From TrEMBL:
Entry cofactors: Mn(2+)
Protein name: Phosphopentomutase
Entry binding sites for Mn(2+) 2: D304, H309, H357
UniProt keyword list: Cytoplasm, Isomerase, Manganese, Metal-binding
Positions that bind Mn(2+) 1: D10, D345, H346
Family under the similarity heading: Belongs to the phosphopentomutase family.
Gene3D superfamilies in the cross-refs: Alkaline Phosphatase, subunit A (3.40.720.10), Phosphopentomutase (3.30.70.1250)
Compartment(s) where it occurs, according to its Swiss-Prot or TrEMBL record: Cytoplasm
Cofactor note: Binds 2 manganese ions.
GO cellular component labels: cytosol
GO MF annotations in UniProt: magnesium ion binding; manganese ion binding; phosphopentomutase activity
């Protein structure tokens, strides 16, 4: 009996989105540029990695071929000829180049509305929203109130935050209200509680997520974010693949950030994990526990949060290589009728200006022991992934997307 596993490599885009210009991202290509920089010796870091990008296992599943299909160019050290599975390219129809938009569409639900965004101005947040927030929480004020990178802003304002007790509030090009606060000086539960308050206040503005960004350390040089990030997210507007599989009485394993991204909806088993190795361990654990018709989905967030937003090319390359080294463990744990899909939710080209996501197409790399090698082309919506999995698991067809198997 079938099962399905999705490894979502957060932000591992492959360029070529036809609407990239509208986002200022024409030419962005996360995998392609990392491979180019690595081949040119520009992704070396002592003690971490060196030389051309080395991802033979993903490449065998069609990573190089997918980049070529997406952009017309084969990046250095990747191959145009996969050695197993089916490869293709996913094109997003939802307008946001953010995590929930990508994930919901992958689970069969393109986002039918425009998210609310905060302007690239200071203050970024509407004064009446902040006034209501301060009134509800009794806080003495906020710091930040602008677009920022989360690591930069804690270095800039962390000390003042500790002194004043004012939380650091910031946003980005995504539909987010983020709050950074110190885990002990401010308190983790208190941070979660004020996020909950903001989440209620921002719901009418269609803000996708309020994100708690706890950190530790005592000085600007040593402040460090912890794994206790928590996302308070709007619920998807229609039942996703997760809801549909759970409603059919099947297991749905949400690993890492997945449960938060779908607001917990349709999740029957939630497994926490931080970092690529632990997320792999949890995925393997879920594969051991999973019954027939189970759906397992893991979000590997580090590509995005640790390397993409930080514009860290060697770090991103090393993370891809680490993922690639462990991929055979998942393949070895697969049963004959398990389906594995590697894909991504958007791009985050670490060679691109700024620190935000980039509008890109994504790889769709499909593997099942029984499935012959082949190509699935450029899919016109990420929803084709969800629809294919739904069919694989024996669920009734959904409202969006077409199966590609
Ligand atoms: O710079 P950090 O705090 O990592 O923020 C990033 O993380 C947010 C959620 O993925 C994005 O919108 C981007 O702003
Ligand atoms: Mn993402
Ligand atoms: Mn991100």
């Amino acid at each position: 009996m079938p099962r399905a596993i999705v490894c979502l490599l957060d932000s591992v885009g492959i360029g070529g989105a036809p609407d990239a210009t509208a986002y200022g991202d024409e030419g962005a290509n996360t995998v392609g540029h990392i491979a180019e920089w690595a081949a040119a010796g520009k992704a070396d870091r002592d003690g971490l990695r060196a030389g051309p990008l080395n991802v033979p296992n993903m490449d065998a599943m069609g990573l190089g071929a997918a980049v070529k299909l997406s952009t017309g160019n084969l990046p250095p050290n990747l191959s145009a000829t996969p050695r197993g599975g089916r490869f293709g390219v996913g094109r997003e129809v939802s307008k946001g180049k953010d995590t929930p938009s990508g994930h919901w569409e992958i689970a069969g639900v393109p986002v039918p509305f425009e998210w609310g965004y905060f302007p690239h101005e200071e203050p970024a947040f509407p004064p009446d929203l902040i006034a209501a927030f301060l009134e509800r929480t009794g806080l003495p004020g906020i710091l930040g109130d602008k677009h920022a990178s989360g690591t930069d802003i804690i270095a800039e304002l962390g000390a003042e935050h500790i002194r004043s007790g004012k939380p650091i509030c910031y946003t980005s090009v995504d539909s987010v209200f983020q709050i950074a606060a110190h885990e002990t000086h401010f308190g983790l539960d208190r941070l979660y509680e004020i996020c909950r308050q903001v989440f209620e206040l921002t719901a009418p503005l269609k803000i996708g997520r309020v994100i708690a960004r706890p950190f530790v350390g005592e000085t600007s040089e040593s402040f460090k974010r912890t794994g206790n990030r928590r996302d308070f997210a709007i619920s998807p507007p229609e039942p996703t693949l997760l809801d549909r599989n759970a409603a059919a009485g099947n297991q749905v394993f949400a690993i890492g950030k997945i449960s938060d991204i779908y607001a917990g909806s349709g999740v029957t088993h939630k497994l926490k994990g931080t970092g690529i190795p632990q997320l792999f361990d949890k995925t393997l654990e879920a594969m051991e526990m999973a019954a027939d018709r189970a759906f397992i989905m893991t979000n590997f967030v580090d590509f995005d949060s640790e390397y993409g937003h930080r514009r860290d090319v060697p770090g991103y390359a090393a993370a891809l290589e680490l993922f690639d080294r462990r991929l055979p463990e998942i393949i070895a744990a697969m049963r004959q009728d398990d389906l594995l899909i590697l894909t991504a939710d958007h791009g985050n080209d670490p060679t691109w200006p700024g620190t935000d996501h980039t509008r890109e197409q994504v790889p769709i790399l499909v593997f099942s022991p029984a499935l012959p090698q082949g190509e699935i082309g450029i899919r016109q919506s990420f929803a084709d992934i969800g629809e294919t999995i739904a069919a694989w698991l024996g669920l009734a067809p959904g409202r969006h997307g077409k199966t590609f198997l």
